[in-house]
Amino acid sequence: MKILLTGGLGYIGSHTAVELLNHHHEVIIVDNLANSSLSVLDRLKKITHQEIPFYQIDVANKVELEPVFLHHTFDAIIHFAGLKAVGESVAKPLEYYQNNVLATLNLASFSIKYGVHKFVFSSSATVYGDQPSPLIETMELKTTTNPYGETKAMSERILTDAAKANPPFSVSLLRYFNPIGAHESALIGENPNGIPNNLMPYITKVAKGELKELQIYGQDYPTIDGTGIRDYIHVVDLAKGHIAALNKMKSAVNIYNLGTGKGVSVLELVTAFQNVNHVRVPYKVVGRRPGDLAIVYADPGKAKRELGWETSKTIEDMCRDAWNFEKQNV
Ligand code: NAD
Ligand code: UFG
């Protein structure tokens, strides 16, 4: 298939590009470099030994986007492009709605106009809102606690309505849990700008000595050790989930959780990281982070049954690969 990857130089997009090329698909990347850099394109070439056509454009801008559809005939789109910092979205809600919702609207419109029938969307577990885990695709969505989450819920609704009204246009809404880790080459991985918001990139910076200590947000949750529980998934397993979703798109709207189904606490992750990598991660427990939920993990059964996809990498793999990437690159 010939596939357009929006946001393909970002963390998840770049790993998915590698998997697609390994499976002999043709990949075109568009990205505005808002949270990535051109060096990722060189690294993708090093890993795959292939040239990847790239356009530096803003997909929220129709005028910039349309020529890409005029120059190429795509079989599918995987839409990763988006702003993703939860805290920033509370401070700058309009930028988030403008960027994330317009990007989805533009891409859906051009998909239909130019006859691209398969559309895979990067959604998030955050769309479930505050509901008991394991989270399952049949649950009704609850209001999320931040504008970022709302942009994901809105994009899901826009794509669902567009697919219902425009057969054979079909969408797969992939609800990611917590991707961490990096490619085994250590050439690509997660490299956020500034001080990381997310747990794993913070841990790797502390282990490297660039940040003094990890702050654990709360040890008074109703969990095994009082710290928050999440479903961490290796980014390469997540990337492979996109290929499974593309291959098995069968109806107008397909929704899948991409997670492991296993909950891991903050302290368990820190302990695993220290043991696997033989490094220290100093930490202190502070108050809860506003908006955080105690326990979030997937029921991954539907993806296994319908897509034949399941994760294979362990927490130890995730910790080792994240550290290798940090040590060798950032
Ligand atoms: P990322 O920031 O590394 O990658 C996103 C890419 O999109 C970046 O390269 C950025 O430059 C680009 N981009 C942003 N707005 C754009 C625009 N208007 N036009 C063109 N390019 C644009 O993030 P990621 O972790 O790779 O996430 C990919 C997608 O998955 C995002 O939509 C994100 O919301 C979603 N997601 C991520 C997580 C996570 O924890 N990483 C969890 C759930 C969902
Ligand atoms: N945490 C800390 N200290 C930190 C950072 C995080 O203790 O410095 C804790 C959090 O309280 C939480 C866990 O580590 O218990 C994971 O936090 P992350 O910020 O890494 O991830 P979240 O689960 O909060 O959110 C992530 C993405 C969202 C996405 C969601 C999907 O940031 O965009 O996963 O489940 F929607």
How would you describe the overall organization of this protein?
The chain has 330 residues and is of the alpha/beta class. The chain has a domain at 2-181 and 232-259: 3-Layer(aba) Sandwich (Rossmann fold), CATH 3.40.50. Helix content is 41%, strand content 16%. The chain contains eleven helices and 13 strands. It has helices at residues 11-22, 39-48, 62-71, 86-91, 93-113, 147-165, 199-208, 235-247, 266-277, 301-307, 315-328; strands spanning 2-6, 26-30, 54-55, 76-79, 118-124, 170-176, 178-180, 214-217, 229-230, 232-234, 253-258, 264-265, 283-286. The model has no long low-confidence stretch (mean pLDDT 97). Uridine-5'-diphosphate-4-deoxy-4-fluoro-alpha-D-galactose (UFG) binds at residues 84, 86, 124-126, 177-178, 197-199, 202, 214-217, 228, 230, 266, 289, 292, 296.
Please state the oligomeric state of the protein chains shown. single chain
Task: Name the structural class.
Answer: alpha/beta
Q: What radius of gyration results from the CA coordinates?
A: 19 Å
- Poorly predicted sequence stretches spanning 5 or more consecutive residues: none
The CATH architecture category of the domain at 2-181 and 232-259 equals: 3-Layer(aba) Sandwich
